[in-house]
Amino acid sequence: xxxxxxVKGGKVYGVTVYFLRHGxxxxxxxxxxYGATDVGLCAEGVAEALNAAGFLKTLxxxxxxxxxxxxxxxxAEIVMERNAAPSDITYIExxxxxxxxxxxxxxxxxxxxxxxxxxxxxxxxxxxxxxxNGDSIGAYNExxxxxxxxxxxxxxxxxxxxxxxxxxxxxxxxNMLHGxxxxxxxxxxxxGKTAVMEFFDGFxxxxxxxx
Length: 211
Hints:
Elements: E1 7-8, E2 11-12, E3 14-21, H1 26-29, H2 43-56, E4 63-66, H3 70-81, E5 89-91, H4 108-114, H5 116-124, H6 137-154, E6 157-164, H7 166-178, E7 194-200, E8 203-209
Parallel strand pairs: 3-6, 4-5, 4-6
Antiparallel strand pairs: 1-2, 3-7, 7-8
């Protein structure tokens, strides 16, 4: 078995990032595409956020960052209100979900029917796809990578909490583990669940997923 030693001067070093996906919304329950659309938590989403608060309540965070969209903001507030050592929440535009443009609010079958050529292009090569009147996936993933690189320059120790969206979190996990986002859909993260990553001395370890 292979172990990596993370102790210097008797202390554990490195930074641990907790990526928390916001709780469920009605659009999640209906399986709609939505990113820029601002939808708050439904009752199930509030319950999921409370469950996440229980999981994270004993951790001390050096910093807490969240997407400004209501579903992430509400989740972050529920978690911090119940934390043993609550931190201020900094809302970051760069943590928003991808903007699906004309597809916002639609279900997959609706998109396939209305935008058949675009849907085919998306399914066959999502990496190079730009949503009609929305974000370029390539540009979004580059933005995610740049944000994470900046975060790891600002923080070199302690625990960091990021409350964001599935697109951002899976893009971050893939970029940090593989150097690009091509593997992002090999991972999954349910609403109200957490991914945990450790960073130290150039190493990156996915410690937990969907907890």
